[in-house]
Design brief:
Layout lengths: L18 H8 L4 E5 L4 E3 L15 E4 L3 E10 L12 E8 L4 E6 L12 E8 L5 E7 L2
Antiparallel strand pairs: 1-2, 1-3, 4-5, 4-7, 5-6, 7-8
Length: about 140
């Protein structure tokens, strides 16, 4: 719609559990929670380990590299993305063993493929927050 007004993108609301994650993203670092007993990472941030149920989680910086598990081209924009459609959203398997969804930048629908190598990049939301996104790791 030509008369559609672009709205601001929603910013995260950090909690005591998620604040370390969002603070790191704003510093262009990506932290995952790590369970040393299970020797596994988890995403999204939680108060306990999904692997052991313990509260002994550590925050560790990760590589930011992964591969495309799945993707879609979005033609009906979510709030804050009006005028940016079409855009790509991908499910990415990180090398650390977690899967997450995010925007995929700097490639077209014709260029993206399952198994493609990607790395983190960053999206400024407002003066207080950035989001992580992915781009091809060429």
């Amino acid at each position: 719609m030509a008369d559609r007004e672009k709205r601001p993108r929603p910013a995260p609301t950090p909690t005591n559990i998620t604040r370390p994650f969002w603070d790191a993203v704003n510093d262009h670092k990506f932290l995952l929670q790590y369970d040393p007993d299970a020797d596994k990472y988890q995403f999204y941030p939680r108060g306990i380990s999904v692997h052991t149920g313990k509260q002994n989680l550590e925050w560790r910086e990760v590589s930011g590299k992964g591969t495309i598990y799945s993707f879609t081209e979005t033609v009906i924009p979510a709030r804050g993305f009006e005028g940016e459609e079409p855009y790509l959203i991908a499910a990415v398997d990180l090398g650390e063993g977690v899967r997450l969804m995010s925007l995929l930048h700097n490639c077209t629908t014709e260029e993206v493929e399952i198994g493609m190598a990607v790395r983190f990049c960053w999206d400024k939301i407002d003066d207080d927050f950035e989001y992580f996104a992915f781009e091809p790791d060429r």
